[in-house]
Each structure stands twice: as C-alpha cells, then as structure tokens.
Amino acid sequence: MSRSLQPLTSVVPPSGDAAIWSQIRAEAHDAITAEPLLGALIHAGLLHHENLQSALTYRFAMKLSSDEMSAQLLREIAAEAYASRPELVAAAKADLCAVYERDPATHRLIQPLLFYKGFQALQAYRVGHWLWTEGRRDMAYFVQMRCSEAFGVDIHPAARVGKGVMIDHAHSIVIGETAVVGDDVSMLHSVTLGGTGKADGDRHPKIGAGVLIGAGAKVLGNIRVGHSSRIAAGSVVLTEVPPCKTVAGVPARIVGDAGCSEPAMSMDHLIEMVEDGRRGTEVGDD
C-alpha cells in the first residue's frame, strides 16, 4: 500500500476472527512495503504470530518488561491468561474494532495494535484483572504499576471494564478500584473515575453502556451514569446522571438530551447550550 493510499475506503471492520487476522496481516505487509525501516518491528509484533492472541501476548510482554521483570516471564503470564479466559481475546477484538470504527484518525487495524497506548493499556489491564481474580494480587499490582509507567494509564486491576471500549489519546486516565465501565464506552484523555476521599468500600463510579466521556472529565464517587449519556469535556460529575442525557459544567448539571441513541459510537462532542438568552457550543475534543 503506498503512502497516498493508506486510508481505507471503509471503516467497517471485517467480520469473523479469521477475517480480522487476515486483514491485520495484509495491512502489516503493506506497511512494510511503505516503510521498510519498520520491518523488524512489524514482523516481530504481527507477522511472526499465528493469531491475534499470540500478537497480544507478545505486545504485552514487550511494552511492560523491565529490569525487574523479563519479557519472557510476562509473556508466559499473558499466554496463561488468554488460554484460561478466551473472552479476553474476544474483548480485545471488540476494543480493536471500536477504535477502528470510532476514531477518524484510525485507518487500519494495525494502528491500535502497534501504536495506540489506549488500546494497549486496556489489554494490559485485562491481563492484570485476570491476575486479580485469580488471587495473584501482587502480580496484578505490578502490571498496574508498569502500565502506568509505560502508558500513563492507571486502571486498578479490581475495576471492571466491559468490551468494545475506546480510550482515545489515553494520557492520564485514572480508573479506581470499585469503578465499573460498561460495554461500548468511549472516553478521551485525562478522564478520572475516582473516589471522593478516604472512605473504603464501594466508592467509585458506575458508567453505563454506550456512554461518551469528554476529555478531562472527572466522575467522582459511587454514582451511576446512565447508559447512552454524554459527559462534556472538563466537567466534574458528583451526582447521578440519568440515561440518554448530556451533562456539563463544574459541578456538572443536565444541559439536554444525549442527542442520539449511541453517543459513544457517534463521538459527537458538540453541545448546544442556551444560557441568559444566548446560544453557544462546547467542543469536547479534536
């Protein structure tokens, strides 16, 4: 594929596991043709593997390895996780397709796999969450630490995150221990799903399916954000949000309906607001 032909004619991902992996391999070959200097990286990360599971295992190990933990040991941990829980691979595929469908800067499936820290951090969290549920708490904490150091994304391994999630840009994401994120959620950089103090127990937000969270938004406390809602960029949400609504401000308040049935899919951050007789717009991100 030449440089001028890199954008695909469609952003509809292929259906079926074999079709997805086949497209990834085709894109990898095209990328090497276009940029031979990336040949070693792409061969090691994609073309040397028989399937997505193997590629994810390799990427997890390469990105999180350090002088304290070798890539080989991390590769064995990830391989065990994926073999034990096939749904982790299914979630990764859903996440991959979510980025491919929703991010206008993403034209190939290989982009999140090789270059996007949001996607890679989310897959690292999934392995860490598996370790947590297996009772391997200290190793889970190690994965959390390395994920924070490598990607700037800090997701507690006990948090529960659904599938089909996109974390765009991903810098400075924080998701607390008792947080829950539903399926098909989209969030931008600098989002915090945090607590409100030193209280123990269930203290973090519960984000419904299909929610869109704008850049820099903070959702604090054990509150629920209803499905298919929108949280405007820079908002501080301290109270529950009904389904299919848009909230904005500090503290956030309801400013209207979500505007569509699937805001996390449309990625529409524009908010029409009427205050003091004047109409304006807010833009959530780029």
UniProtKB/TrEMBL annotation:
Pathway listed: Amino-acid biosynthesis; L-cysteine biosynthesis; L-cysteine from L-serine: step 1/2
Record keywords: Transferase included?
yes
Q: Where is the Serine acetyltransferase N-terminal domain?
A: 20-124
* PROSITE patterns referenced in this protein's UniProt entry, alphabetically: HEXAPEP_TRANSFERASES (PS00101)
SUPFAM superfamilies attached here?
Answer: Trimeric LpxA-like enzymes
EC annotation from Swiss-Prot or TrEMBL: 2.3.1.30
Q: Which reaction does it catalyse?
A: L-serine + acetyl-CoA = O-acetyl-L-serine + CoA
Q: Name one GO molecular function term.
A: serine O-acetyltransferase activity
Q: Does the keyword Thylakoid apply?
A: no
Checking InterPro entries in the record gives: Hexapep, Hexapep_transf_CS, LbH_SAT, Ser_AcTrfase_N, Ser_AcTrfase_N_sf, Ser_O-AcTrfase, Serine_acetyltransferase, Trimer_LpxA-like_sf
Keywords (A to Z) from UniProt: Acyltransferase, Amino-acid biosynthesis, Repeat, Transferase
The cross-references to SMART domains, in alphabetical order and at most eight, read: SATase_N
Broad enzyme group: transferase
BP terms from Gene Ontology: cysteine biosynthetic process from serine
An example Pfam family from this entry, by short name, is SATase_N
Record GO cellular component, one term = cytoplasm
- What NCBIfam families does UniProt report for this protein, alphabetically? cysE, EPS_EpsC
Write out the similarity annotation: Belongs to the transferase hexapeptide repeat family.
What's the protein here called?
A: Serine acetyltransferase
Q: Could you tell me which species this protein originates from?
A: Paracoccus jeotgali
Protein encoded by which gene:
cysE
